[in-house]
Amino acid sequence: MATMLHPVESRADPLDVSRAELYRDDIWHDPFRTLRATAPVHRVEDSSYGAYWSISAYKPIIEIESLPEIFSSEAGGITIADFIESDDTVKMPMFIAMDRPKHTGQRRTVAPAFTPSEMVRMSDDIRRRTGEILDGLPWGEEFDWVDRVSIELTTQMLAILFDFPWEDRRKLTFWSDWAGDIELVKDESKRAERLGYMYECGAYFKKLWDQKVGQPPTPDLISMMIHSDAMREMDHLEFLGNLILLIVGGNDTTRNTMTGLVYALDKFPDSRAKLEADPSLIGNTVQEIIRWQTPLAHMRRTATQDAIVGGQQIRAGEKLILWYLSANRDESVFEDADTLLVDRPNARRHLAFGHGIHRCVGARLAELQIATLLEEMAKRRMRVNVMREPQRVAQCFVHGYKSLPVTLSKY
Ligand code: HEM
C-alpha cells in the first residue's frame, strides 16, 4: 500500500537530478559528481518532468550551445518544465526562447541598456543605493540578508531599469518568484494562480507602456522597446513575455548571487580572510561567486534533428538539460571545484551566464551590482556572519535561498 501512495518516490532514479529535494536539502553534489565521472550525457527516462537528457560536464554543454540550429531554444523552451514559456491557454514568447533570426532582432532591442557606457552611467546610482541599504542595517542583531539586502537591491535596480513606480517595486519580486517557479507545473490550481499573476503583471506594464507611447525617448527599457524597430513587430503577449524575461532574468539570479556571496564567504573563511586583506581581489571574487553559486542551475535545449553528443545518440524532438551548476563544478576545468577560491585563476571561465548566442545579456549589470556590494562592504569593514543554515529554494531551475539569518561584525 505504501508504494501505491508514493509511486514517484519508489521509482526514483538516483541520477534524476531534477528532484526538488536535492536543491531544498543541498545534496545535489554527489549525484552530479557521479554523472560527470560515469555518464556526462545521460538519459533519464522517467522524471516528474518527463524524459530528458542530462548534460552534466563542461565540454558537451559548450558543444551543444555552439550549435543553436540543431539544439533549439524555441522548440521546447528553456527549462525542464514545459509550461514556463507556453501554457495551454496562453503563449508569452520571450527572446530567450527564440531561435535565429527572430532572436537576433529582439535581443538587439534591449542590448543597448547593458553596454559598458550604460554601466558607467548607472554606476554612481548603484553605489549610492548599495551604501544606503548597508548603512540601514542593524549591527549586533540578527536579520534576514535575503529580505533586507538581496531582494531590496535587485528590486531597486529593476525599478530603475523599467522606470517602474518606486512604491510598488516589491511587486517585481512577487511576479518574478511566481514566473520562475517551475515546480508549479505539477499543480493545476497553482498553474492557474500563476497565470493570473502573469496577467496582473502584464496589465500593470501595459499601463506603463501606454503612458510612454508617443512620448520622447527616455533611458529605460520600456521606452527603448517602444522606440525600436524590432518592437514594432511585437504583439502584446510578446511584449509581456519579454518584460517577464527581463524581470526574472534580472531578479532571482542577482538576488541569489548576493546571498550566495555571504553564505560562501562564511563557509570558506580562508578565502574571506584573503579578500578582507586585499580588496583588489573583488573583481575575481565576483566571477568566483557567480561560478560557485550558479543561480540558474540549468537551461534546456531541444534537438531539431538526430545528433550524437558525447557518444550518445540524441533523437530529434528530445529534451536536453544543460546543468551549468554541474559544469561549474567540473574538476577537469576547475581544480578543487567545490571550494570558493577568491584568487582562482580561471574563475571567469564559468558557465553561469551560458554560452553562445543566448549568453546572458545582463551579465555586465549583474557583475557591476555584485562588485559594488562587495566594495561597499569592504569600505565599511563589514563581515556578515551566518547564524544558521539558509532556507533554500526547492526546485532545479532557480538555485537560491529563501532566507539567510545573519549578524554583522567589523573586521
Ligand atoms: C540569459 C544567467 C543576470 C537578463 C541568461 C542565460 C543565463 C543567465 C544562464 C541563458 C543563456 C543560454 O540560454 O544560453 C544569469 C545570471 C545572472 C543574470 C547567472 C546574475 C548573476 C541578468 C540580469 C538581466 C538578465 C541582471 C537583466 C536585467 C537576461 C536576458 C537573457 C538572459 C534578457 C536572454 C538572452 C538571450 O536569449 O539572448 N542569463 N543572468 N540576466 N539574461 Fe541573464
TrEMBL record:
Keywords: Heme, Iron, Metal-binding, Monooxygenase, Oxidoreductase. It comes from the Bacteria. Pfam families: p450. PROSITE patterns: CYTOCHROME_P450 (PS00086). Belongs to the cytochrome P450 family. This is Cytochrome P450.
